Structure formats: structure tokens, C-alpha cells
Here is the input.
Amino acid sequence: MQHIQMSEDDELDESRFSPLLKPASPINFPIPGSPDPRLVVMSSLLEDARFFGENSLYFKMSAKMDEVLEIGVDLQSRGRFLMNVAYKQAVYALRCSWRVLSAIEAALEGDLAKQQMVTEYREKVEKRLNDFCRKVLTSLDKHLDSVPDTESIFYLELKGDFYRYLAEVAIGDNRNVLLENCRKSYDEAWTQTKGAACGLAPDHPVVLGAAANLALCQIVLNRPEVSHVVASEARKKALDYSVLSNVDFEEDASLVDQFLRILKEITPVRANAVVPIPEAPVAVPANLPATNKVESPPVSIMATNEKDREKSRYQTPLTQRYASEEMCYNFSERKRIITWRKLWVWLAKSQQKLGLNIAEDQIAEMEANVERIDWDFALAEEKRVRHDVMAHVRAFGKECKKAEGIIHLGATSCYVTDNTDLICIRDGLQILLPKLARCIDRLSKFADDYKALPTLGYTHLQPAQLTTVGKRAALWTGDLVMDLHNFERIKSDLRFRGVKGSTGTQASFVQLFGNADKAHMLDVLVCDYAGFKKCFIICGQTYTRKQDLEVLSVLAGLGATVHKICTDIRLLASFKELEEPFEAEQIGSSAMPYKRNPMRSERCCSLARHLMTLVNDALQTHSVQWMERTLDDSANRLICIPEAFLIADALLITLQNICEGLVVYPNVISRRIAAELPFMATENIIMAVVKAGGNRQECHEKLRELSQLAGNVVKQEGKDNDLLQRIRSDAYFANIHNELDELMNPTLFTGRADKQVEEFLDAEVRPRLLKYTSALAGIATVDL
Here is the structure.
């Protein structure tokens, strides 16, 4: 089949098309009374328009509709449908082209020649889109003068749509003016639907569509309260009238349902929400493409006040409940963008030092505006160009008119994104280190206090040889000391990406300076400004994601340590030997008033499990970075790296709080020792009998028999261990009866546990904490 290409300016040669593509019969528009010549001409023009539409020649179709509007008579429903298809399909092609070109333009930020070429073409498409939309708006305004108010709703809605299309490619005050014109058109259409002369029921899809368009437009204009009033009014009237009672086409039922759902969900969640506005509803026949799809806005359930609106949007518990303010800020959007701007300042300063023509007042202007961020402008730009870095380059340039032309000079996006990530990682480690040191300090003091208090040891979670409470705490402390060493090592080894260009070769900077040595010095200078001692000598577009893997591995290791410590505490709490802090009004269970659940330790285990899984993200990301880089790392890293640090922060705060309030119950511990110690003491009893002149084998057999009997009493009768009483009652052991109390002293069974604790604290803990002495003060609180 021959493929025919035609621009909008081509004349139609109908012989080039198969007769099968031509309409089989003309469109029959009722012509009451004597034939009006204008209606005859309009019928012919609409027939041509439909023919063009069936062959996807939408600019030709729209040109025919321009001629129809010039006639100055009402189009009736089928004519209005064809006009809607013609204009929207034509402008849709321009809008898609503009979006694609804007994305390519942003992606070519390191290649000035190609970027300029794409920019020029994008500007041509943008001009053509503006001209087309304004031509349509002019035609609609002229036609509205000849249309009665009862028929004007469709045209007003269409006007609102085309003002919105213009706003999509506009910026600044011009965009605001266009959005306000869009709002006025939608508002007038909505007002017309409420008039008595309208004749449309409250549940008609045109009425509901007008309300939805206006309500969503008000959200875009930061008027959520007005939006809520419009949506509530329309929905209430429709439901009161009885939903779906007056539909003209079978497919209208789904349209009504969709609009009712949109109106139900519209709520003033946040003042600066940007919500897509659905097109006005039309019934689409089978032989023409559907152009109007209703999309539900990403809006929450109904909210009535500021606090409800805040709580109607998902917020991560890490920032709302668990992590510290300093860690939340460290990975905040504000710090991220401020750091981007600092990196642009450092780049400009370094380029100036190396001889580029950058003036002092340009740098001063940039430094003065580092923290002055127009968030609304940046968001609008990002939605327009689909590129976060270029959006903020332009937002920074808006504040720095003198320096606008040198911002991001020669750099690629990863210059700001990767280096900012590394700065946040470094600062995050600096936040965690003193908190980890405080946990070690608190646990080491606990270990020292209880280094000589005997307690049952457990292997396989079965009672084993005795240890001490302090010795067990020293085991926990030892793991944390290893984590501290790993944290210090990874922070010391952390390397800056620096200024490497789009594939890591620094080619753009060699070209910029005309000197390879200066390109190298640029790297050194920026690294120094950022406060890093080391910089990657080689990298691709990004620094190797192996470094992320190492960082997350260290954080996951901390998660494993905390999980082990808090699991032990939970088990000991179930034995009632040890307890985490439990406040006076704290409730352990909503059903069982007596319970004292170890909720802090349980929280730590829960968070630690998630932290340990995040290292898998780093493993997977590093393994799939093709060649010099792929972009599938970006969204994943935006989640897993901040989450890992926020969780680690929450774990250390909570663990410190637990360690500062641990409660030991010596009497419970003694009772549990007493239940098991007689069995453990049998070897010492054998030694004592032999020393008193007895036979080792005979003594062993006696003790075996008595132990079996005592074990049956414990297991089958549920009574206490009575082995010691049986030994005291057996004449065979008469020679050592006076030694039994001494033989049963628990301290005889703990070996060098207390000395080991002392040696460990002196050799491995206290020296390592010296550098953190000034940071060890303070008490950790857990509010929730």
C-alpha cells in the first residue's frame, strides 16, 4: 500500500485516495422551511471535514471547520463534535512535538551546538502552537457572538481548553494570565449550565464535565477552597436528581460515573497542587478516533481543615515519627537544591580562577541568591521541560540575571546530582557517628555496672553455662564498636565525583579551556571547595555505584547489630530478667492492661529489617549500570539512600533511649539461675566427692539417677528443681553436705567474665570514644 505524506499546507488531491475512504453519504443536517444557502454550504464543508478526519488529516480538517465557523450559524451536536475533533487532534500533534523537543533540549545540556539546533526547532513548534491556538480562540470568539446563550456551553469549554494549551508552554506572568482566562471560560460555561434556559439536567455529562473542569482549574490556580465548593455543589445536585436518569447515549453512563468520581475526590489538599484537567466529554462514533479521555486527578479524599488536608496525603513515618530533624533536613529538597546552587557557585569560582571571563559581580550575585528559590517556577519549568536540573538552572538564572549565562557552564546533570548525593552521604555519616558513639558509651557503662552479676547463658536458646549481665552487654557493645570502625572507614574513604563531563572524560572542559591541565585543576579546585580530600580519578557519567553499595552495606551492618541487640532484649524481657524503659502512663496492650511490651525494641527490629533489605537496591543498581551509566539508577537511589540514613538515624536514637533506661531484675535472674544451677553444678559436686575420698564413677551414676528424678519433677509435675534437696537427703553425699552452699555459688560459674569486660572496655571501647568526648552528653527521647 502506498504511504501518502501530506503537510497541512498541501492541497488535497482526492484522486490520491481510494474511493472507499470517501464518505458514503453526506451528513444530513435538518434544514427547516425553505433551504438556507448557508446551511447547504455548511453541510458540504462538514462532509469534507469528516472525510479529512477519517484519514487523520487534522490540519486540513481544522481548516474546513474554520470555514464552517465563518458562516455564522449554529453547528448542532454533530457539527460541534467534528469541530472538537479537528481542533484538538491538530493541536495535540503540536503539543506532543513540543514536549518531545523540550525533553531532547534538556538532555543535550552538555552539547551546546546540538542543543541550540533543537532549541530553534522547539521555538518554531512553540510559535506554531501559539498561532494555532490563538487562531482557534479568535474564531470561537467570533462564533460565540452568533450563538444563543443556551448553545454557548460547548464553545466556552473549548475556549478554556485552548487557553490551557497556551498556558502549558508559557512561563511567568503570561502563564498566569492565560490560566486566568482559562478559568473565566470554564466559569462562564459552568454558570450557563445552572441557568434555567440551559435545559440540561444536573446529572448530564456536559454539566458535570463543566464543573470538573472549573474545579480542577481552580486547584491549578491555588484556589482549593473554591474548587471544593464547585465540586461539592455539582455532585450534590447530580446525586439529588438521581444519577444517570437523563443520558442520551449508552456510553454517557460511564462518563457520568467518571465525572462523579472526580468531583467526589476533588479536595483542597494543598494550595500549590498541579492537577491535570480532563477534556470536555463527547460521544465518539466508531469511525473517528477518540480524543477526549477523562483522567481522575491524583487527589485525596475530602478534607475540611488544614490539619485534615495535611493528613490526607501520605507522609513517610521516617520523617513524621522516627528520624531527627537534622537528618530529615540533610536529605530534604531544600538542602538538595541549595547544594546544587553551591556547586554552580564553586564551578564558576574555579573557572574564573583558571582564566574564564567570569566577573566578580556575577559570582557575588549567585552567592547572594543561593537560598532564594522560586519553587513554583521551578516546578512549572520541570513539568514543561521534563528535566529537573534544567528547570533549576533556569530558576537560578531567573534570580541571577547577570550570571544567567554562566550557570552550569560545561557541566552535565550528574555534576550537581551525584556530587550533591555525596555531600549528603558525607554529612549523613557525620550526623550518625556521634549518635553511634553515644550508644556505645551507654551500653559500655551498663556493661561495667553489671559485669559481675551472674545470669544464665543461652545456646540454642537453651540454658547453658552462666555468664554475666555485663558480659552479654559487652558482646552487644563489641558489635557496635565494629560498626563505628566501619562508619569511620567509609567516611574517610568517601570520594567526590568532581567535574568530569558527560562520560567522565572531561572533554567539554578541555574544549572550554583549550587546555587539559586546566580541566584537571578545575576538578581539584571544586573538590576542595566541597570539602573532600579525595576525588575519583576515573568515572563514567556518574561515580561508580559501588560506592553506594559500600555505604549501604555499612548501614545495613548497623541494622543487623541493632536487630540482634533488640532481639536479645525482647527475649530477656519475656523472661522478666531485663526491661526497656516503660513510662508511667504507657499502655502495653489495648486488650490486656497488665502487659509491658518492649515496643521500642520491637520498633528497632522492624526498622532494622527494612534497612537490611535496602542494600539489595544498591547491589542491583550497581550491577545494571550499563557502560558509562543508565538512568534507571536515579529514582531508586532517591528512595533507598535517604531511607537508609533516616532509618539508621531512628535506630540510634531509639537504641540510645533504650540503653539509658534498661532495668535489670536481679531477683528474677537469681531465681532462674536456681532452677538450672543444680544440674550445672554436678561436675563440681563430683570433684568435691572425689576429693573427699569417693569414687568418681559411683558418684556420676548417683547424680545421674537423682538428676533424672529431679528433671521429671520439673517437666512432668511442673514443680521447682529439687536436685539439691535430694543430694542433701542422700547419705552417699554426707561428706560434702557442708560444702554444697559454696559449691552452688553462681560466681564460681562465670569464669573471667568480669575481667574480660574490664579488659575489653579499657582496650577497645574507651580509647575509641575519646574523639567523641564532647558529643557524648545528652539524653535521647522517643516521643512516639
